[in-house]
Specification:
By secondary structure, this protein is mainly alpha-helical. The chain is built from three helices and three strands; from the N terminus they run ααββαβ. Strands 1-2-3 form a three-stranded mixed beta sheet, covered by helices on one side. The radius of gyration is 13 Å and the shape is globular.
Length: about 80
């Protein structure tokens, strides 16, 4: 599992280098990975490591609002310097 998470971290790091369509394609590749799991309470919200975040409750509130509008949400931990 450690090797898989290192690869996942590298995929996330690539987001800092990409823009436009390349950025969108990279996000799509990330959300299709097997590390994401649906939350026990919400079938349309998928997470990888967010549950340990200090900001988890705020992320969950925002995710639930997006689901109300028909979106499927993939939550990531928010490292410093990551754009939204």
């Amino acid at each position: 599992m450690h090797l898989v998470m290192n690869d996942f971290t590298e995929e996330l790091a690539k987001l800092h280098l990409l823009t436009g369509a390349e950025f969108s394609r990279q996000v799509e590749r990330i959300v299709l990975r097997k590390e994401f799991h649906p939350l026990d309470t919400d079938d349309n919200i998928f997470s990888v490591g967010c549950e340990k975040s200090d900001d988890y409750q705020n992320l969950l509130i925002a995710a639930r609002k997006a689901v109300e509008f028909g979106y499927t949400v993939y939550m990531l931990p928010t490292p410093n310097k990551t754009r939204y």
